[in-house]
Specification:
By secondary structure, the chain is of the alpha+beta class. The chain has two domains: about 10-140, Chemotaxis protein chec (3-Layer(aba) Sandwich), CATH 3.40.1550; about 170-235, Roll (Surface presentation of antigens (SPOA)), CATH 2.30.330.10. The chain has helices at about 15-25, 70-80, 85-100, 115-120, 150-160, 180-185, 235; strands at about 35-40, 50-60, 65-70, 105, 110-115, 120-130, 130-140, 170-175, 205, 210-220, 225-230. Strands 1, 2, 3, 4, 5, 6 and 7 form a seven-stranded antiparallel sheet that branches. Strand 2 and strand 3 (about 65-70) form a beta hairpin.
Length: about 240
Amino acid sequence: MNTLSPAVAPGDLGTAQLAERAARAAAALVPSTMPLTVVVARDADVPAGAVAVVATLVGAPSADLVLVASDVLGDVTAAAGGSLTVLDALRPALEAAGREVGAGVLEASRTEEAGAATGGAEVLALQDDGRTVAWFALRVRGQAPAPARAAVPSQRGTSMRMLYDVEMTLTAEIGRTTLPVRQVLELTPGTVLELDRAAGAAADVMVNGRLIARGEVVVVDEAYGIRVTEIVYDEDAAR
C-alpha cells in the first residue's frame, strides 16, 4: 500500500483522486479515538464477509459511497446501549464524503456485504498508526470517455436537465453545538443546548449538507417558513 499524494483541485480530479478526497473527508468523521490516515488499497483487501454501509449520491456525478468500519464502531455502539445504529454512526462520514464528490442528493444509507459493495470500486484503507481499521470505497456511476470539447456544453446542459425533476431535501439550521458522545448519551427532556448563533441571527438553508442560502424564520399559515435574504455562493460558504 502506498501513501496518497495531496488532493488536487476539484476541476482536475480523476476517479482515483476524487476517491482520495472523499476518503479524507470521511476519515475525519469516522468515530475513532485516533486520527485516521488514508492509503491506497484494492477491493480484494477488504474482508468480503464484513458489513458495509452504502449510500448513493444522485447528482453530477452520481456515485456509490461505501464505508466498512465495524472494527472502530464496536465501542461506540456498545456505549450507546443499542440506541446508535451503524447506519447512524457512519452517516456523517458518508455525507462529508458526498460533499467532496459533488452536488446532489445523498440517498438513505443501507447495509450490504462488503465484497459486493466494494467490487470494482476505488478502495482506500483508513489506518490508525499503520493498522487498517476501516475501508472507504467510491464507485462513480455511468462513467464514459470524455466527449469532444465542442460537444461538452450541449451534453452538460442535457445532463443537468435530466436532474431538474429530482427532489432535494432542504433543511433550515438555526445553529450548531458540539458535544462528546458521553454528553449526547446523557441528554434528557428539559436539557438546554446552547447553540453557536445569537438570537435573531439568520438561519442557514442547506441542501445535502451544503450551505446555499440564508434567511429569516417566519410563520406561514401556522407553520414555520424561511424568507430567503441571501444566496450563498461557494466562495462565501467556505468562509
